Structure of Transport permease protein:
Amino acid sequence: MGSMNKYFFKDMSVMFGRSMRHIFRSMDTIITVSITPIAIMLLFVYVFGGAIETGTENYIDYLLPGILLMTIGSGIAYVAYRLFTDKERGIFERFHSMPIARSTVLWGHVLTSLISNGISVVVIILVALLMGLRPAAGILEWLGVFGILGIFTLALTWIAVIAGLAAKTPDGAGAFSYPIIFLPFISSAFVPTDTMPSVVRAFAENQPVTPIVEAIRNLLANQPVGNDIWVALAWCMAIIVVAYILAMRIYKKL
């Protein structure tokens, strides 16, 4: 069992290295992922921000958590695309004929997603600081923020794996991310939910993005997070478990 674990991690580090090389060869991926959220952030802060009542002194402080989730939603589309490309080129068959743990091929892509999305998130936070973001968070709160964003990235990445393995075309591989990018618009990411019509409000308050946004917002403001953090983690863990099981089932059929 020990040697099997040793080989699993060794194989996974090789796959992770292979996947990371693709990222560093095309850094434009990270730039592309960051451009749209930065544009939305500029638009909402400098064009709409003055007209939106959020109860916060600085709208960028209110807005940032939703923008970070949109950034991750954009970034995972590339995971699906790269997996689809591997499948179409027969890379999986080549790896399956080698004495390596099968699942390490997927884990290489998943870990790369965590790193590349982490870089994009840091870029967005730096831009937000230039735009006047003034978080009250200490080190522990920042660790909490990055922890939640990491688990959220993991959850969405396993959904991306399903899309990449099941897609029939390159466009189809990335298209699943559009509804995910759109979800923050129907949440508390841009405006408080109590300003919404009752049906929209009911949806906004009972979908995964709202508790994740609220937990991150309160951590950044150094405020009590209440139940939001547990609801956020429960949503993310449930998505990870279901998506992982489905992804593995599809992968084994390839």
